[in-house]
Amino acid sequence: MEKEINGVRELKEKKLVGYRVVCKDGTEYAKEIPKAAIVLEQRKSEIKQLVEPVKLIGAFKAKETSEEYDGYWVCFEVHKFEDIPEEMVGLQIPSQKVAVLDFNGHRSKIFNVYTHLHEWINENGYKRLPEKWTLEIYSEWSESENKVDLCDPIE
């Protein structure tokens, strides 16, 4: 497992199309998110206006702000919303400043890596904004090894 802080970045607005995963029991996410990602990958050709069809994006709010935004979104980025496929949803993420950690390893380890990112944010004088969108931008998604940028919102 490799992890490296990539610094601070300004993310432009993103329009995402995919599946929203909501679990009553938080432990279910580890099982349900990969299932949603597999189905999304199989249906990728149905999504119009794809930006980068190889980059899967996960989005969530670390601090629940409303029932409407509860859960985890498994998506692809699109240039604009057009004919969103049945059973899928659109999600618009506003521009925001993020601290980025590059992670290489099994996705089951991602949750633990956030501690390292949060420590770096504090040590460097930034403030986390858990009510904004955290993004996980995958360059590779697989059952074993993943390459992902963990983007935690800050001010």
UniProtKB/TrEMBL annotation:
* Entry-linked SMART domains: AraC_E_bind (SM00871)
Question: Which Pfam families does the record match to this protein?
Answer: GyrI-like (PF06445)
Q: Where is the AraC effector-binding domain?
A: 1-155
The protein depicted here goes by the name GyrI-like domain-containing protein
